[in-house]
Design goal:
The chain is mainly alpha-helical and 112 residues long. It has 2 domains: 1-80, no CATH class; 81-112, no CATH class. The chain contains 4 helices and 2 strands; from the N terminus they run αββααα. The protein has helices spanning 15-18, 61-68, 84-91, 100-106; strands at residues 49-50, 53-54. A two-stranded antiparallel ribbon has the order 1-2. The radius of gyration is 18 Å and the shape is globular.
C-alpha cells in the first residue's frame, strides 16, 4: 500500500499499538490485511504462502514508514466493519446496499 489504511496497525489508537507493540514484528516484514480473505475465526489469512511469506499480500505502509524513518500515520485508528452485523453495531443501521430490495435489484432475471 502507498498510504496506511484506515485501520492500519501503526495508527495511533490501534489495538496493536495499544498493546504496546506486542503484536507488531520488529525484525521482519509486516503485511497489510487489505485484500486478504477472512477465516471463520475472523483472522486475515493468506490464500498461500511461500517460505513463510504471504503470496499476494502487500507490505504494510505503516510498517514501511516505521522502518524507513518516514512519519507514522497521524490520523487515529478507525475500526472498519467487516460483516453486516459489525456494520450495524458500528453505524447503528444497515447500509442501503445490504437491504433486501437492493439485493433483489442485483439478482439477474431469467426468462422462461
Amino acid at each position: 500500500m502507498r498510504t496506511p489504511c484506515a485501520d492500519c496497525a501503526y495508527r495511533p489508537g490501534s489495538p496493536e499499538r495499544e498493546a504496546l507493540g506486542a503484536q507488531l514484528p520488529e525484525n521482519e516484514p509486516f503485511f497489510c490485511h487489505q485484500g486478504l480473505p477472512i477465516s471463520a475465526t475472523g483472522a486475515y489469512t493468506p490464500v498461500a504462502t511461500f517460505r513463510g511469506l504471504p503470496l499476494g499480500a502487500m507490505v504494510c505502509a505503516g510498517w514501511w514508514a516505521a522502518q524507513t524513518g518516514e512519519p507514522l500515520p497521524g490520523k487515529p485508528y478507525r475500526d472498519v466493519p467487516v460483516t453486516a452485523n459489525h456494520v450495524e453495531a458500528l453505524w447503528g443501521h444497515t447500509p442501503h446496499i445490504l437491504t433486501e430490495p437492493a439485493a433483489e435489484a442485483t439478482t439477474p432475471r431469467t426468462e422462461g
